[in-house]
From TrEMBL:
Protein's recorded name: Molybdopterin-guanine dinucleotide biosynthesis protein A
Biased composition, class Basic and acidic residues, residue ranges: 154-170
Residue stretches making up the MobA-like NTP transferase domain: 2-135
Keyword Transferase: yes
UniProt cross-references to InterPro entries, sorted A to Z: MobA-like_NTP_Trfase (IPR025877), Nucleotide-diphossugar_trans (IPR029044)
Source organism phylogeny: Bacteria, Bacillati, Actinomycetota, Actinomycetes, Pseudonocardiales
A Pfam family: NTP_transf_3
C-alpha cells in the first residue's frame, strides 16, 4: 500500500473537491477535511452517508460517496463517474460496477439534491442499498482493480492487486 493510509489514498481521489467530508473519528491526514460523525456512532453506512450529506452545503450539486476500503479508486475513477453522471442529466447518480457488474454502493457520484430527497428521517441501522438502488444509478465498469476492497488483514497485505473482489452490501 506504499506506506499511505487507506484514508489518505481515498482522499487523494477527491483532492480537487471542496468541501471534503470524512465521517468517522478524527485521524491524522495530510488533507484538509471536515470531520463529522454519524449519530449514534456505529449507526451504519446509511447513517454515515446522512451525516456526511448534512455537512455538505446545499449549493453543492455533486457528491462523491467513497468508502476507504477501495484502495485502487483514484481521481481518474471519480472523474469517470462524474462525467458519466453529467452526460445523463436525468440520472440521480452512478456507481462503479465490479467485473461481474455488481454495483459498488460505496464508490459512486451522486446528485446531492436527489440524495437529500431520498434520505429517510431515521437512517440508523438501515441498508445503504435500500436508499441507493431505487435511485436507479448508472453503472460505470471498473477499470483494472478499482473494485477490489479491503475487508481483512490478508486483503490489506495482498494490496490492490485485484484478487479480492468487492461484493454487494448485505
Amino acid at each position: 500500500m506504499s506506506g499511505r493510509t487507506l484514508l489518505d489514498r481515498t482522499l487523494d481521489a477527491v483532492s480537487g473537491a471542496a468541501p471534503v467530508v470524512v465521517v468517522g473519528p478524527w485521524r491524522p491526514t495530510d488533507h484538509e477535511v471536515v470531520w463529522t460523525r454519524e449519530t449514534p456512532s456505529g449507526g451504519g453506512p446509511l447513517a454515515g452517508l446522512d451525516a456526511g450529506l448534512r455537512a455538505v452545503p446545499d449549493s453543492v450539486e455533486y457528491v462523491a460517496v467513497l468508502a476507504t476500503d477501495h484502495p485502487d479508486v483514484t481521481e481518474a475513477t471519480v472523474d469517470r463517474l462524474t462525467e458519466a453522471l453529467r452526460a445523463r442529466p436525468a440520472a440521480h447518480g452512478c456507481v462503479l460496477g465490479d467485473p461481474e457488474g455488481v454495483p459498488q454502493w460505496l464508490v459512486g457520484v451522486w446528485r446531492a439534491p436527489a440524495l437529500r430527497r431520498a434520505m429517510p428521517a431515521d437512517a440508523q441501522g438501515r441498508s445503504l442499498r435500500s436508499l441507493l438502488k431505487p435511485l436507479d444509478p448508472l453503472s460505470v465498469p471498473a477499470v483494472g482493480s478499482e473494485a477490489c476492497d479491503i475487508d481483512t488483514p490478508e486483503d490489506l497485505r495482498r494490496g490492490g492487486d485485484g484478487e479480492k473482489k468487492s461484493g454487494e452490501e448485505p
